[in-house]
Amino acid sequence: xxxxxxxxxxxxxxxxxxxxxxxxxxxxxxxxxxxxxxxxxxxxxxxxxxxxxxxxxxxxxxxxxxxxxxxxxxxxxxxxxxxxxxxxxxxxxxxxxxxxxxxxxxxxxxxxxxxxxxxxxxxxxxxxxxxxxxxxxxxxxxxxxxxxxxxxxxxxxxxxxxxxxxxxxxxxxxxxxxxxxxxxxxxxxxxxxxxxxxxxxxxxxxxxxxxxxxxxxxxxxxxxxxxxxxxxxxxxxxxxxxxxxxxxxxxxxxxxxxxxxxxxxxxxxxxxxxxxxxxxxxxxxxxxxxxxxxxxxxxxxxxxxxxxxxxxxxxxxxxxxxxxxxxxxxxxxxxxxxxxxxxxxxxxxxxxxxxxxxxxxxxxxxxxxxxxxxxxxxxxxxx
Length: 383
Hints:
Helix content is 32%, strand content 27%. By secondary structure, the chain is of the alpha+beta class. The longest helix has 20 residues, at 44-63.
């Protein structure tokens, strides 16, 4: 299938808290995407532990191929009940979305999902059942390629309490904002950012509760080709540049020597820039016809460090530096072709590293490994 499932979320902690009491876990494979959103009772560290425990147990049981209803039963039997409020210590929403658009939704003590079809909120018919004393809502629906689904914690529905509104914006109020934002913006990342900004505005920028906004949509696959490092055999300079040009999608060059090889083979010039957006990341370069040209190992190590801490669905870094831009392009792509030269940089010769342990080899393998864990299709061609 030429479509993939995109997902992005942003969680905001209550004012005065360092961590958010909500937790999101996302499992992706070639067949489906599974999203678990949990909201711990209260806020801060305790709420975060409770929501993390709930979502981790859920994804663990899903991984064991248990039916979702059996998973809910296990959670209800496992999670404690607040003696004062007589409610579970954590809420739960699970969305299981297959590549062909079949969606299964189960909700427990959480706001209903928002389905956007043709830029309008479409009511989803949910079946209710009582399970071990808890009311569970569930449904199975078929999505089209243009549909979008949004999931939120109750901090969104309560936005405005104690600030602009007595009872918060409510589900219908937020639904109107979703329709408005989706009608004005197409990119899912931007939609999530705008919806979060709206909630913060209702809280007068001082959130009275943790909240999370999460969105899913279908999009066409994106591809990228990246060249880094000169080949061991200088006679293959032309060949590696051909691999770059004939590769699919956007074109990235990483490394000063590599940039000059590409420019020479294309009869172009390397244009240097001197803008330090991050003191730890060297400035970008420019070559006509290339989408991004960065410095080599310093930038690549920064990229690898970021990717190792990135989770499915998290928004991309916003920086203008080469590492941030390279991370954004890699994460936004589904198929990534890496053409990697293994000529040893003279400045690294004193390390006496064998070829397979060369610094560039290591960092490119790190990046590829991180991308594969994020369900990216990565191909490496060594020269």
